[in-house]
Amino acid sequence: MTSASDQQGAHPVVARAEMLIRKPVDEVFEAFVDPAITTKFWFTRSSGRLEPGKDVRWDWEMYGASVEVSVKAIERNARIAIAWGAADSPTTVEWRFTPRADAATFVSITNTGFSGDGAAIVAQALDATEGFTLVLAGLKALLEHNISLNLVADRFPAGLEEQ
Q1: pTM of the model
Q2: Which residues on adjacent β-strands are paired with residue 109?
Q3: Quick check: 18 and 107 in contact, CB under 8 A?
């Protein structure tokens, strides 16, 4: 298997999604580490809170899918880093939280370490970019307007694959 860095030389493929959330950094950060909040805009179940060195499982029950997550770093209100995906080729996801003077937070999510041939790496990066964009949009609606948009659940509605 070829890694993304092998395919791209010194410029590995990076999936990136970013969004301004008009809430204080502590509230935005907590939404990603506390599954009681995260399950309102992303996955449906978690085996626990994100903590440094901890392994958790996230489930998307509507899809019958799950992923093992290994928490690599937590810097309160600043950064989260995890490894997730297939055990033999996990990728790294990093959240960066930048507080703003207007009590808002700029969130940047990157996903790196894709493997496979060039087409597979591009497909993974595009899927990750789309997915994390939906996650951030869902978070924004939840925290700013207390609305659950069900973006992740509605991305692949039942029966669509048959059309």
Answers
A1: 0.89
A2: 17, 95
A3: yes
Residue 161: C-alpha distances to residues 44, 155, 156, 157 (Å)? 22, 12, 8, 8
CATH fold, domain 14-145, is Alpha-D-Glucose-1,6-Bisphosphate; Chain A, domain 4 (3.30.530)
Contact 58, 72 (CB under 8 A): no
Question: Which tokens in the block code for residue 61?
Answer: 């029950």
- C-alpha span between 128 and 18 (Å, rounded): 12
Q: DSSP secondary structure string, 97-114?
A: EEE-TTS-EEEEEEEE--
Residue pLDDT, tens place only, 91-131: 999 999 999 989 999 999 999 999 999 999 999 999 999 99
Which residue is listed with tokens 């659950």? 148
User: CA-based Rg of the chain, rounded to a whole angstrom?
Assistant: 16
How is the beta sheet containing 65-75 ordered, strand by strand? 15-21, 105-112, 91-99, 79-84, 65-75, 55-60, 45-46
The single-letter code of the amino acid at 161 is E
